[in-house]
Amino acid sequence: MKRARLMLVASMAIFGTLGPFVRNISVSSGELALYRAILAAALIGGYLLVTKQPIPLGHIRRELPFLLLSGVAMGINWILLFEAYRYTTVSVATLSYYFAPVIVTAVCPVLFREKLTAKQILCFAMSTLGLVLITGTGEVGKGGTDLIGILFGFGAAAFYAAVVLLNKFIKNVEGIHRTFLQFLAAILTLIPYVAATSGVTLGTMDPTGWICLLIVGLLHTGVTYCMYFSSLKELPGQKAAILSYVDPLVAVLVSVLVLHEAITVSQLAGGALILGFTLWNEVSLPSRKLKEAS
Hints:
- By secondary structure, the protein is an all-alpha fold.
- The protein has 14 helices and no strands.
- Helix 1 (about 1-15) packs antiparallel against helix 10, helix 3 packs across helix 10 (about 205-230) and helix 6 crosses helix 8.
- Mean pLDDT is about 85; it is low at about 285-294.
């Protein structure tokens, strides 16, 4: 259990440092998303091969359409998130992106006929207020392009929510196999997109860009996803939910302390509302503890 907690904290901390590396890669967001998927798929594919974990394709045929769609959504999610980093600060982009669980909460009653509790409605309302505080801060941090970056971050959140919702339909695929297949689907989606837009521009990158690209693809995606899914197998959902908030906290610290990016009190308050009420929505006290407390 302790090892799993350390792995999850480490993976979330690594995710939180993604922004600065993306900033140093000169290719387009679509091209970067494609290379990220290729590098991560190659690494995870090698891991599955070495550990002799074949993909049971015969058992998952009915779920392949959902895997394909979730991979498409994942690729678009990455493009929008990388665009958010380019237009606003890393902290604001990340806080906007973490609106994804709120979107999932709002959509689940429609798709899965789940009833919203009073607590969920309150969390949704307060998280939405947090997003309003973040978006209503004017032209801070990136020369007046803050709002564009926030909208990209919110779009990335919407597509990440789509990935989460589509995964609810996937029951018979292990986490690491699921991620590998989603990366392959993302690659198939991103290849024609890149060909129709920016094309291949790897020749324009300097040595720093190449190093950052390898780090983003192999470490931030391949290695970290393996750590993330391995730790989830051994941790209760509530502990995993709490520890996942290391990601936005690290992202904010990196943005302010390392990149020296500006962040307003309103943005901090909005981020606190989104993270705090989303976390509260995901965590509940066990019934035994509730009885003891009463």
